[in-house]
């Protein structure tokens, strides 16, 4: 008999594969069970419903994003380089984990107030960016300067989304050129931030 944690992981992996291949609209407990190779009741041993599965994916995604952006910022030359590294890591995370990323920011699928772990993980991931902005610019209330925070997040999130949706394919043909384009955008943003 397989351990319960193995079943939970199989359900999550099958869910991620389903989201990646068919999209969120195709998500159902029965299809997840089929893809996991278990009975249609088996996922209910760990998750009461499909939103609970999605919430676990969201929590896992934000935890990974937090870890990857924190690691990326380590060893930065200065606070500007740290922000650049965090931005590139954000986009890199999205490209490596598209199923997580597609779900993480869809509040209509996962209610963060109902699923507190997912909400806490989201706050933890956002705190990495917020703290990097605090080192660069603070508002009169002592909090990270909001316009700069929105600008940095919009750049990283918008770029990740456009790349995932294939909207920049003609501009960034090939993996090498795509990475060069990502690096160039963040280098330009860093130059702009240093000039402020």
What are the main properties of this structure?
single chain, 0% strand, 196 residues, Tetracycline Repressor, domain 2, 8 helices, Arc Repressor Mutant, subunit A, globular, mainly alpha
- Write down the Rg: 19 Å
Query: At the third CATH level, what is the topology name of the largest domain?
Result: Tetracycline Repressor, domain 2
Give the overall silhouette.
globular
Q: Give a short account of the largest sheet.
A: none
Instruction: Output the helix-strand order.
Output: HHHHHHHH
CATH superfamily descriptor of the largest domain: Tetracycline Repressor, domain 2
On the 0-100 scale, what is the average pLDDT?
A: 92
Tell me what portion of residues adopts beta-strand conformation: under 5%
CATH class of the largest domain: Mainly Alpha
Count the domains: 2
Count of DSSP H/I helices: 8
Straight-line N-to-C gap: 61 Å
CATH architecture of the largest domain: Orthogonal Bundle
Spell out the blueprint of helices and strands.
Elements: H1 4-22, H2 29-36, H3 50-73, H4 79-96, H5 98-104, H6 116-136, H7 146-164, H8 175-195
Helix pairs in contact: 1-2, 1-3, 1-5, 3-4, 3-5, 3-6, 4-5, 4-6, 4-7, 4-8
Question: Can you characterise this structure?
Answer:
The chain is mainly alpha-helical. It has helices at residues 4-22, 29-36, 50-73, 79-96, 98-104, 116-136, 146-164, 175-195. Helix 1 packs across helix 3 (50-73), helix 3 (50-73) runs antiparallel to helix 4 and helix 4 packs antiparallel against helix 6. The longest helix has 24 residues, at 50-73. The radius of gyration is 19 Å and the shape is globular.
């Amino acid at each position: 008999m397989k351990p319960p944690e193995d079943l939970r992981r199989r359900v999550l992996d099958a869910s991620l594969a389903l989201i990646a291949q068919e999209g969120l609209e195709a998500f159902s407990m029965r299809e997840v069970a089929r893809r996991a190779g278990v009975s249609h009741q088996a996922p209910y041993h760990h998750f009461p419903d499909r939103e609970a599965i999605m919430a676990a994916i969201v929590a896992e995604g934000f935890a990974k994003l937090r870890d990857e952006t924190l690691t990326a910022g380590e060893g930065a030359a200065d606070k500007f380089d740290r922000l650049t590294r965090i931005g590139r890591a954000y986009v890199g995370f999205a490209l490596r984990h598209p199923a997580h990323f597609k779900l993480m920011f869809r509040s209509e699928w996962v209610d963060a107030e109902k699923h507190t772990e997912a909400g806490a993980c989201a706050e933890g991931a956002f705190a990495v960016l917020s703290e990097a902005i605090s080192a660069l610019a603070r508002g009169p209330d002592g909090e990270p300067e909001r316009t700069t925070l929105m600008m940095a997040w919009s750049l990283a999130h918008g770029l990740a989304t456009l790349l995932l949706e294939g909207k920049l394919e003609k501009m960034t043909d090939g993996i090498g050129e795509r990475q060069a384009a990502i690096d160039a955008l963040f280098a330009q943003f860093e130059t702009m931030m240093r000039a402020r």
